[in-house]
Write a structure and sequence with these properties.
364 residues, alpha/beta, 6-stranded parallel β-sheet, 4-stranded parallel β-sheet, 12 helices, 12 strands, 35% helix
């Protein structure tokens, strides 16, 4: 028999076509629901840690989803978020703002508070909430508000800035596990919740650089000795960039002694340190400089860590409106995540300020 003109090619490993790659099917909520024996809605709520699903069932669904390899659909989540953001949200619920000042008007008297409230209100109304103020004092203890909040289905709480001195609020006498909570500002005596405040250390370093740019060489800091205030930390980092001869030691007010009683010590510091500019977070410093015979700005330039609340026009604007906006967004995000009670780890959200030029610190 004659051989064929074109022999049939032999299949080898080199010439073999690769097997088609099969993409594994993505695990869906329906798959998890079928495995556990519950509805898709129950799985969705459980994965969001919704309180309507028992803790035992939530743990079972989370474990099953992890075992099956379930992953949320990022595109679907983004689309749902876009739809949620795009539609109008009528005000449906309140966010409780707790004012712990003995006289609530004391907080409202602070110039920056109105801007804070405006920022919080605009952000909250975008998602169907509105801030509502509640006073906590001797006449109305915190525990009394608990029933009011639960009755009105208020789930989010913003704890406002605390008044000076030790807090007299009984923070433990409250069912925090029923609420999402965010604090404004940081104080060691505050309850352990996430908080939003100004970026004090960063702001101080910004102020230090701006003061140097304006020709000042010996920049001092006069402020409070308080571990909860980060202005001193920012000042020390800024000083570290200078030579030893150019560094100015800070003047720190003692918390145990009224500021006016520290005038002699302050004047001694001025004579020894010889600052040509001072950055301060104390309302008393402008008056104390005047009593010591120093003119601002002729003898010493002066800048404030918060120009909104101090009689000094040069320094840092802490952006209170942005702090209020972020405070509202933070507590709303906790509500949407069903994140209630005291957190295991607290989050610190710091809002950076801006430098403001003023007559108290002219260019030299």
């Amino acid at each position: 028999m004659s051989k064929p003109d074109h022999p049939t090619p032999q299949r080898t490993e080199e010439s073999a076509s690769p097997e088609p790659r099969v993409t594994p099917k993505a695990v869906t909520l329906k798959d998890v629901a079928r495995e556990v024996g519950v509805t898709i809605a129950a799985v969705s709520l459980a994965l969001k840690n919704h309180a309507s699903i028992s803790e035992a069932r939530r743990e079972e669904i989370h474990a099953t989803a992890a075992r099956l390899g379930y992953r949320p659909n990022a595109m679907a989540t983004a689309l749902a978020h876009h739809r949620e953001q795009s539609r109008f949200h009528p005000v449906q619920a309140a966010l409780a703002f707790i004012n712990t000042y003995p006289d609530p008007a004391g907080l409202h008297a602070q110039p920056a508070f109105e801007d804070w409230w405006r920022g919080a209100t605009v952000a909250a109304e975008k998602f169907g909430y509105r801030p509502e103020e509640f006073s906590v004092n001797a006449k109305q203890p915190l525990k009394r508000l608990e029933r009011i909040f639960l009755t009105r289905n208020i789930r989010g709480i913003i704890i406002g800035p605390l008044p000076p001195g030790e807090s007299c609020v009984n923070w433990e006498a409250f069912a925090w596990n029923q609420f999402s909570v965010v604090r404004c500002g940081f104080r060691e005596q505050s309850p352990p919740f996430h908080f939003v405040t100004s970026a004090q250390a960063t702001n101080t370093m910004l102020a230090f650089d701006k003061i140097r740019e304006r020709g000042y060489q010996r920049i001092g800091f006069a402020g409070y000795w308080d571990k909860a205030r980060m202005f001193g930390a920012g000042f020390h980092w800024s000083q570290d960039e200078l030579s030893l001869e150019a560094r100015v030691p800070p003047f720190l007010f003692s918390k145990e002694t009224p500021e006016q009683d520290q005038q002699p010590r302050f004047e001694e510091w001025l004579k020894k340190a010889k600052p040509d500019a001072i950055l301060t977070d104390s309302l008393a410093v402008p008056t104390m400089l005047d009593e010591a015979g120093y003119r601002v700005p002729e003898d010493i330039g002066l800048a404030a860590t918060n120009v909104r609340d101090m009689p000094v026009d040069a320094g840092i604007d802490q952006n209170p409106e942005e702090i209020g906006r972020v405070s509202a967004l933070a507590v709303i995000s906790l509500i949407h995540d069903n994140d209630f009670g005291k957190p295991k780890f607290t989050r610190q959200i710091l809002v950076q300020g801006e430098w403001v030029d003023g007559k108290s610190l002219p260019v030299r």
